[in-house]
Automatic annotation (TrEMBL):
This is phosphoribosylformylglycinamidine cyclo-ligase. SUPFAM superfamilies: PurM C-terminal domain-like, PurM N-terminal domain-like. Keywords: ATP-binding, Ligase, Nucleotide-binding. InterPro entries: PurM-like_C_dom, PurM-like_C_sf, PurM-like_N, PurM-like_N_sf, PurM_cligase. The gene is LOC110799187. The lineage of its organism: Eukaryota, Viridiplantae, Streptophyta, Embryophyta, Tracheophyta. Its EC number is 6.3.3.1. Pathway: Purine metabolism; IMP biosynthesis via de novo pathway; 5-amino-1-(5-phospho-D-ribosyl)imidazole from N(2)-formyl-N(1)-(5-phospho-D-ribosyl)glycinamide: step 2/2. It comes from Spinacia oleracea. HAMAP family: AIRS. GO terms for biological process: 'de novo' IMP biosynthetic process; adenine biosynthetic process; purine nucleotide biosynthetic process. One of its GO terms (cellular component) is cytosol.
Amino acid sequence: MAAKLGVVTVEARQNPIVFCSTRQIYGVSNTKNSNICFKTKPTSLLTPQKLSSSALALKGVGSKGVVEKSRGFVSVSSSGNEAGGLTYKDAGVDIDAGSELVKRIAKMAPGIGGFGGLFPLGDSYLVAGTDGVGTKLKLAFETGIHETIGIDLVAMSVNDIITSGAKPLFFLDYFATSRLDVDLAERVIKGIVDGCQQSDCALLGGETAEMPGFYAEGEYDLSGFAVGVVKKDSVINGKNIEAGDVLIGLPSSGVHSNGFSLVRRVLAQSGCSLTDKIPGETFSLGEALMAPTVIYVKQVLDVITKGGVKGIAHITGGGFTDNIPRVFPKGLGAVIDTDSWPVLPVFKWLQEAGRIDDKEMMRTFNMGIGMVLVVSPDAALKILGDANGATPMYRIGEVVTGEGVSYR
């Protein structure tokens, strides 16, 4: 793939870094092909061959084991994963346990629990965030795609701090491995530099840790830390959100950097290879899954200047179900219109191959929407009216009285 090359000097590191400034984003079209890749015979009734037209017509029926089809994904009805479909917890990740830990930490350090931490400094707040890229790293090792994992790393932190309206100032990274492969590390840092350029922030420094025997040969771990700034009178905190406000969704490039423990479980169960094509598409599973996380900094800060933005939710672990309520005052919830945006083919494949029900999909993955803005109705008209085709936005729901997120 063609790439532009340049040189940037990072003062905190000893050598200039050659970086790749472009990378294709995969997975932006929708497939009309209902077939999916199964290398092993599925055991569930949720195979395309067994989906009768009468069963597909039963959308909304809640009896045990009924198959539904809505907006392109196939699932068991609301009775849960009775047909043996996978869950995030099956893959080893317990969202409820994570939420419980946050509650316990909040008792020791009150105020923790938002997307970014705010530190008062004069008439402004410094806003800080930290994150990694999770087990998406495992797919980087398998695919050999290391140039974009650094973009994911930057994105996960800067996308969190812009939910407060903060402009990112600088980023620091931590790269750890058992034996330092300089060429491989350079490729990873290329992506970090690119992510910082997309965020209009400085790569201020980082730590490279060589830890013999701690990681498998050829593997590494990453974490990142971002700091931004916002004026105190401009901070976005959700306090003024009210029933009737509009939810605007910004499209994702794919799975981004959450839910990969479940992704990997689905891959193992399906028997598919990362080189297999997604049905009806020209790109492979590996390319779709490794599409770098969208960095929303410039787009979101531009929208904020239009006025009327009351709250912003970054859709990461916990999906719509857990992330959107984080910005609401007590007593408010959301209704999401599930047919209001195009669902990317990679999510349809994951749901069908893993026989994952709708509820689990909405609580694990971003489903094609990586950031949600809560805005006043008047502001929604202006923001959506000003949106252009290159960066589409979708009206995906509204704020309602009563807590939690429901889907229609």
